[in-house]
Structure formats: structure tokens, C-alpha cells
Amino acid sequence: IHSLATYISPMHSLSARNSTAHRKAFPVLSFNYEYVRKPFEISLWILLALLMKLGFHVIPRVSHVVPESCLLIFVGLLVGGVIKAIRQTAPVLDTDLFFLYLLPPIILDAGYFLPIRPFTENLGTILVFAVVGTLWNAFFVGGAMYGVCQLEGGQLRGVDLLSCLLFGSIVSAVDPVAVLAVFEEIHINELLYILVFGESLLNDAVTVVLYHLFEEFSHAGVVTVADALLGGLCFFVVSCGGILVGAIYGLLGAFTSRFTSHTRVIEPLFVFLYSYMAYLSAEVFHLSGIMSLIACGVVMRPYVEANISHKSYTTVKYFLKMWSSVSETLIFIFLGVSTVAGPHAWNWTFVIVTVVLCLVSRVLGVVGLTFVINKFRIVKLTKKDQFIVAYGGLRGAIAFSLGFLLTGNKMKDLFLTAIITLIFFTVFVQGMTIRPLVELLEVKKKRECDGSINEEIHTQFLDHLLVGIEDICGHYGHHHWKDKLSRFNKAYVKKWLIAGDRSTEPQLLSFYNKMEMKQAMMMVESGGAPSRRKTVISKSREMEVRKMLHSNMQKNRQRLRSYSRHDLMMDPFEDDVSEVRFRKQRVEMERRMSHYLTVPAKRPEPPPSVRRVTEITSVDGRKFKVSAELIFYCCVWSVTLWLF
Amino acid sequence: MGSRASTLLREEEIEEIKKETGFSHSQITRLYSRFTSLDKGENGTLSREDFQRIPELAINPLGDRIINAFFPEGEDQVNFRGFMRTLAHFRPIEDSEKNKNTSTSEPLNSRTNKLLFAFRLYDLDRDDKISRDELLQVLRMMVGVNISDEQLGSIADRTIQEADTNGDSSISFNEFIKVLEKVDVEQKMSIRFLH
């Protein structure tokens, strides 16, 4: 949006003229567009993009067949065409705009809500696909392209090997934005989703290194072995460095969230800002910003969620979803606009060969790698899985922006055209056909229900069981290390990063509480008793439950004075079981709701109208609190000092 | 050293174990060397103390139950056959085995048998039902001391309520299977014994 259209405001001259003319009455209504031009146009673009998105869902038939990304690109094409027709200069998907503003929200949204368990279970597979697969793609496409260019002769003869390899590295990477946009709509099963999506995230490091490597070399002209080795080293630095930066910011964010109990309204901002800073800091050193962002989100999440209130959690969730949705919409529309606007150098051979080569190399790469990987996997990848992984390798806006970044390269227009065609092909053809193919091949879909408490308990049970068996066998496998990490986490890390009692709360309890909360909310929305309480509660049990509720209600009264509904006392002589059951549920629900909406931990909080520091009863507790605050402030100051 | 020779594994034994459990030759020998390293008494069988000597097992909340699972009903010693028989439950399911419609008895590492093993760890009194008390015991072992009894009780109640389909306030084996049908048991309950 930096290079926006230059509107000539006719009104401007009019108002100028008016002021120099004869003295007239005070202007009641005046017109000054220049003042608000930039934010106005930005807002207008975003608004129009979102209205488009809205429009698609109003027309149900279209949105079933065509994925949203295709429709948005199409709209972008139309808008670009319109702008070109009225001969204005269209806003182009500027690289800065893309990498600094549009990409981070999407990645943060994906990283924060990354399903950790399937990700870590399949990490080996994902890494192999991301690193080896992308390298294979880049070299195969680059090399074969070079061969084709030499064979073809004519205008392509000028494309040298390094340029081809550079081009290969740009088009080889699977794009997370496109993958997300398409896979989210087809609701595929978790394993395939995490394989393709994880690959698209982790291959960022490879892409960054290859891109910079080949760009440097294409200026220098010649590659030595030392350079290649340095490139390999660079890869490790980029990826591990990115993860490290992200993890540091994540820990800082978690630590900060420990102290936000008195200023709950700004809690979500900490999450966003720390993550964004992680991204930017990584970009400063040319480390992988995407991996940094993912690492930050993953590290921060368990601790932040234990610390922040339920409302803040909802805010974080919805803001992330909102921003990523807006970003995605804008990216696809701009892709369409830039296609129409940009300079093109169309070469049939080059473009067609690019598309074919990318497909071929993807299929070969996936099949070959799966053959090797399956030897090490417990649950093998079937042919169907391989097909979906290969077919889901979509290219997107990252490739486009990287191509746009190419400066001083005389092949830029040629490359850009090919990249755009490739993106269009993958998003339109593959994106549209993947849904019927998934149906046709009867690929397993995502299971619909949320986790039940049974699954949670039994999964934990099986984890312990497997760790035990592994220890008996003397086999230090996946479960062993996971168990060690969680013990370390529980013993040391949680104490520092989670406030109050929550630090010792077992995972099972937090899961159970979340479930109860969800059920309570659902009961409120449906406005009545749930349908499944079929077993009759025995009298003694009922008494037990009432006693427990009564004692809990006492605690409740101390906590929230303003809430008057808890005066609903239960009449112990009430004989009608169903009425009592309903009341018990209602009281229980209210208790839970009031408990969980504002207070994350079971500690006494002052009433909301009075802001004062919670008194800590034990002396040791106070000392600990003071020193923790001190450390926190020191950190903040040191960070500020470092920044300036 | 002389007593060691009598406990060396004979080829016929290896073949028998292979047929019964499905482990490969190298896996069996490797696990045999682990067996002998645990067997401090060098009498060809393991006792409960041998297992308890493994340090990580002591801090495992389910440690005792896992150890008990190795010992058949009422016995205090387990030989190598029994050891392997229990471990066979955790062998990954091969693709070739998955599609076989066996009329013979199911292999030890089939999904049902894996789940049966886990079920037996809950169900100590072997009445084919996980009662509320048994569930509470397991939960208490897993979550430690930081939850009050009432909370644990409500978690247990909810668990049973979710799983129980025939209204007997306990979880039978079939209900157990049903609840875990969405969990990838083949992967969760398998150890990659390196060959």
C-alpha cells in the first residue's frame, strides 16, 4: 500500500481558491480528503476484502466447490483489471508489507494453536520432508530447468545455472498460507494436516538459506566448496538461531504474564507483542522469522494459558483468528491485483516446464522420502497418505514475494511470470480438486468431537505405561524423553512462570476444568438442563453433593460481593429429585462461571472495585514475590536499554 | 560363571518365542541380554525386587502395577518366556498382520490385546469392570497430592458417566474399547524395538 494511486484531488484547489477570494462566511462544511487519504484507503481496501469474504459465504453453492483462496484471487484479478482500466497505478504486493505485516499474524495464529502432540510425534518425518524434500525440490527444479534452457536455445540461453538454482529455491518451498487456506476447508485428519503444514512451516529455514545463498552467488558468479559448506552451517545457524530467539521471547512472555493479575485488560497485548518482537528480532539477523514465531507461540502457550483469565484467553484466540483471516484475505486479493498490474515476460516453454517440473519433483520427493521414512515409523504412511502429502504441496505468496525481492536480476520478469503461473496452478487446480479427491479416496477426516475426559485420562495413563515399559526394556525412546521433559518442566520451569497455585495444578485438573466450563457455557446458551443426566442419584450421594456445593458457595461469597444470585439457597427438605437436580446444576454452573470468567487460580481476590495489592500471608511468600518483581523490572529495563 | 551357561538361550527357545510373540531374532537376543542384566540373582527368573531396582520405574506413578502385570496370577518369579510374552503386547502392528482375518487366536500385539493389557492394569480385582474406586485409585496415583478428594471424585464420576452405556456405574471392557476408538492405540501402545 506504499505505492498507492495518486489521486489528484480537485477539491483541494477549490478550497484554496475560496480562502484567497473575497471574505466570505465561516465554512460550515468543508472537504479535506488529503488529510485522511492513506488510512482511508487502507481501511477501504480491508473493508472491501472482508465484504468479499462475506459475500462468498452468502452464496453457499460456490463456496462448496471453490476454495476461498481461489475466489479471493479471482476478485483480486477483477479489481486489478478495473484499476488498470481506469489507468491508475495499482497497489502491489510490496515485499515489506507482506513480510512485516501480512505474514506474521497468519504464522502466529498457526503456531500458537499448533497441535503439539501430533507435531512432536511426527517431528522426524516433518523435518525430513521439510529439509531434505525442499533441498531435493530446489536442486532438481533448478538443475532440470538449466538443462531445458540450454536445450531450448533462443531467448532462454542467457539463463545461467545459478539463476536457475535461485529460481528453483524460490519455487520449491511449500507455502503455509496456501496450505492453511485449503486444508482448513477440507477437514482432513490430523496426521496429514500436521505433516503438510509442519513441513510448510519448517521449510522456511531452508528457503531462507538457499535464497540468500544463491542470491549472493549469482552476483559473485562462482561457487566454491567452502561456500557450500558455509551454506550448510548457515542452515543450522538460521534454524536453531530462529528457534532460540523465539524460545527466549516466549519465556519472557510467559514470565510477564505471571504478573498481569491486576491489569487483565492488557494481557492479550503481551502475547501479540512478544511474538511480533520475536519475529522482527529474528529477521534482523536474517534468521528464520517463521520458526522464531512458531517457537515463541509454542513455548509461551502453556504458561500463558495458566496465567491469564478466561476472557483474555478468548480475546487472544479471537484476535489471532481475526488478524490471520484478514491477512490471508488481503494476501490473496493482492496476489490477484499484482498479477494484472505487474510487468510480465511470458515464455511458454519456461512456464510450462516450471509447472511440470515442480509437480514431478514433488511426487518423486514424497515417494522417495516416504520409502525411507517408513522404515523408521511405527504407523506407516500409506499410498493414500503419500498422495495427499504430494498433492497438498501448494505454492503461494511467499514464493511470489521472494521473486519480487529479486533485484538486479535481468530474468526477474520471466521468473515472476512463471512463479505466478505456478501459484495459480497449484491454488486453483490443486486447491479445487483436492476436496473431491479426498472424498473419492476416502481419506480419513478430522474427528469432530473435542477431547473427552476419558481420552485424556487414558492417554496420560498410556503415556506412563509406555514410559515404564521403555525403562524396563532399557530403551530410551520417544516416551522416555517426553517424560523427562515434562518432569523438568513441572519441577523447575512451572514454578517460575506460572503464578500462584496454578503452578502445581496437574494437567488433568486444568483439562477437566476447561471441559466443565465449556459445558456450563453450553448450558447457558441452551437455557436449560442438559439432556444426558439419566442415572438417578442416590439420596446419600445427593447429600454429599449438596454439602460440597454449600461449602463451595461459602467461598464464593467471600470472593465476589457484587454477585447476588448465589443467594439461591437449597432447601434440604425438597423432595422432588429433578427440581433439586436442576437447581444444583444451576448453582454449580453459576459457581463455575463466576469462578472461571475472572479468576484463573484458586486464590482470594479483592473485589473488582478496589485495586489494591493482594496481601500475602507468609513472609517467605512475600520475599519471593518481591524478588520476582525485581527480576521482572530488571529484565524490562535491560531490554529497553538494549533496544536503544 | 558356570551357572551362566545354563541360562543361555537355546535356538529352539528362540524359535518358540519368535512364533509366539512375533519378535525377530535380533530383538529376542537383545531383550535377552537386558533380561540377564536385570537378573541379579542369575537364576533365570526375575523377581519383583529386580524390577524395582530400575530407578525410573520407582518414580513412575504406575510402576507397581506395571511390574505386577509381568507376573502371572499368584507367582513371584517370571522367566524369560513370560517376560517376552508381556513385552509382545507392545510390538508395533505390522502392515502384513493388519489385514489378516485370522481364524486362529489373535497375535499378542493386536489392538484388542493391547487394550486388554491396559484394561487389566486398571482392573485389579479382575472382575472385567473398572469400578469407581479402581478409577479413583489410578487417578490419585497419576495426579499426586494436589487435588482434593472431592475434585478427584467429580472427575471420576464424569469419566464413568461419559463411558458408561449400560448404566452399571463402571466401565466394562467393551465400553473401554469404545471410548478409545478415536485414539490411535496402534501408535500409542507400541515401542519401536530396534532391529
UniProtKB/TrEMBL annotation, chain A:
Keywords: Antiport, Cell membrane, Glycoprotein, Ion transport, Membrane, Phosphoprotein, Sodium, Sodium transport, Transmembrane, Transmembrane helix, Transport. It is found in: Basolateral cell membrane. It is a multi-pass membrane protein. GO terms for molecular function: potassium:proton antiporter activity; sodium:proton antiporter activity. The chain crosses the membrane at residues 42-59, 65-86, 98-114, 126-149, 161-179, 191-214, 226-252, 272-299, 320-342, 348-376, 388-408, 414-438. GO terms for biological process: regulation of intracellular pH; sodium ion import across plasma membrane. Residues 540-602 form the Sodium/hydrogen exchanger regulatory region domain. Its main location: membrane. Residues 46-439 form the Cation/H+ exchanger transmembrane domain. GO terms for cellular component: basolateral plasma membrane. Signal peptide: none annotated. Belongs to the monovalent cation:proton antiporter 1 (CPA1) transporter (TC 2.A.36) family. This is Sodium/hydrogen exchanger.
UniProtKB/TrEMBL annotation, chain B:
Residues 26-61, 110-145, 151-186 form the EF-hand domain. One of its GO terms (cellular component) is plasma membrane. Keywords: Calcium, Cell membrane, Cytoplasm, Lipoprotein, Membrane, Metal-binding, Myristate, Nucleus, Phosphoprotein, Protein transport, Repeat, Transport. One of its GO terms (molecular function) is calcium ion binding. The keyword S-adenosyl-L-methionine does not apply. SUPFAM superfamilies: EF-hand. It is found in: Cell membrane; Cytoplasm; Nucleus. InterPro entries: Calcineurin_B_homologous, EF-hand-dom_pair, EF_Hand_1_Ca_BS, EF_hand_dom. One of its GO terms (biological process) is protein transport. Belongs to the calcineurin regulatory subunit family. CHP subfamily. This is Calcineurin-like EF-hand protein 1. It comes from Hippocampus comes.
